[in-house]
Structures are given as structure tokens and as C-alpha cells.
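FAQ

Q: What does a record look like?
A: Structure on top, sequence underneath. For example:
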């Protein structure tokens, strides 16, 4: 393991793309999500049958978040984030977050740990 970064993702920025952007800013080529706290305007998660589930807000709370960021052969970073969310009525949903469709509501705090794979 390498360095640890604590960072904030701003309102209306996408969750998945925001984590990728944070890794770029920190110089992390590979990282794990170690902790997170915040909410989304709306959420969009993948389902087991390959479809999408839209969870309407406002303020869809993230109950838990796990994931990793990996550098591809072309040097680009790609985050794969999975979590559990609760809508304003308290209904709970889980699955992978769809990149580009999960805007942060107010702010989002995340802890990233750099992963240094063995060579």
C-alpha cells in the first residue's frame, strides 16, 4: 500500500468521475476506496440483468461505498464503485454506480488509499 488521500468532491460533480479525478490529482495510478460520506442528487445503479435503476432524490444518501480505481493499458483511470443507497422515503438499493449519472448533492468526502501492485 502507498499514500492515503482525504478529499472532497464538489456539488453536481459525478461520483465515479470525481473519484477518478481525485486519483489523477494525487498521482494515484491504482487505489482503493477506504471510506466515504455524503449524498447524491439522484442515483443510477446497474442491475444484475444489465439494465439501470434510477433512484430519485433529492438527497439520496450513500449508506456504504466500496470500490477501486485502476489504470488501463492506455494510461487512463477507471473507477469501479459499488454501494448501497437510501432514497428520501427510506427504500434501500444496492449495486454498481453508473459513471456520469450520480451527481453529488452537497459535498462528498472520500478516503482513497493508493495501491502499489507488485512488479
Amino acid at each position: 500500500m502507498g499514500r492515503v488521500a482525504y478529499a472532497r468532491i464538489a456539488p453536481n460533480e459525478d461520483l465515479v468521475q470525481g473519484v477518478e479525478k481525485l486519483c489523477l490529482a494525487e498521482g494515484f495510478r491504482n487505489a482503493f476506496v477506504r471510506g466515504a460520506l455524503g449524498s447524491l442528487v439522484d442515483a443510477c445503479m446497474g442491475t444484475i440483468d444489465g439494465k439501470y435503476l434510477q433512484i430519485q432524490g433529492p438527497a439520496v444518501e450513500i449508506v456504504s461505498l466500496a470500490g477501486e480505481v485502476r489504470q488501463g493499458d492506455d494510461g487512463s483511470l477507471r473507477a469501479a464503485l459499488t454501494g448501497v443507497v437510501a432514497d428520501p422515503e427510506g427504500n434501500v438499493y444496492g449495486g454498481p454506480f453508473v459513471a456520469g449519472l450520480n451527481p453529488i448533492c452537497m459535498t462528498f468526502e472520500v478516503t482513497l488509499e493508493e495501491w502499489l501492485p507488485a512488479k
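Q: Is there anything notable about this one?
A: Strands lie at 4-9, 31-40, 43-46, 52-55, 60-71, 77-86, 92-96, 104-114.
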